[in-house]
Amino acid sequence: MTDAIDNRLIDIEIKLAHQEHLVESLNERIYEQQQQIDKLENLIAAMAERIRTRDAAQAPINERPPHY
């Protein structure tokens, strides 16, 4: 009877170790993805600002040329 219990405990410990490893791997991947998201958000914000400042410096599209 004790051998069966020992074997079950060993199986549970093995499964727990695998789950802990999996959780740690997933946490690392989530951290990496969040860093990528932050970089992309900063890049988009910089590009939007560049477009805003460029558009403000240009004449409106529907404005008549000065020779009319």
UniProtKB/TrEMBL annotation:
<protein>
    <submittedName>
        <fullName>SlyX family protein</fullName>
    </submittedName>
</protein>
<feature type="coiled-coil region">
    <location>
        <begin position="23"/>
        <end position="50"/>
    </location>
</feature>
<dbReference type="Pfam" id="PF04102">
    <property type="entry name" value="SlyX"/>
</dbReference>
<keyword id="KW-0175">Coiled coil</keyword>
<dbReference type="InterPro" id="IPR007236">
    <property type="entry name" value="SlyX"/>
</dbReference>
